[in-house]
Amino acid sequence: MRRAYNSVLRLPQTSSCPQCSAPYMPHRVCPACGFYKGRQVITINALA
Fold this sequence. Notes:
The protein is elongated and about 50 Å long. Strand 3 and strand 4 (39-40) form a beta hairpin. It has a domain at 11-43. 0% of the residues lie in helices and 17% in strands. With 48 residues, it is an all-beta fold.
């Protein structure tokens, strides 16, 4: 009975970013480009 809930657990769903097409979690800032709802929220520094 204690392990009956383990079959219900799932991985979090991801969406693709409309700016950079990277996977990200919905309702959060994209970690690849820093955009949320079409505007840039954080600045991401690219490694050279």
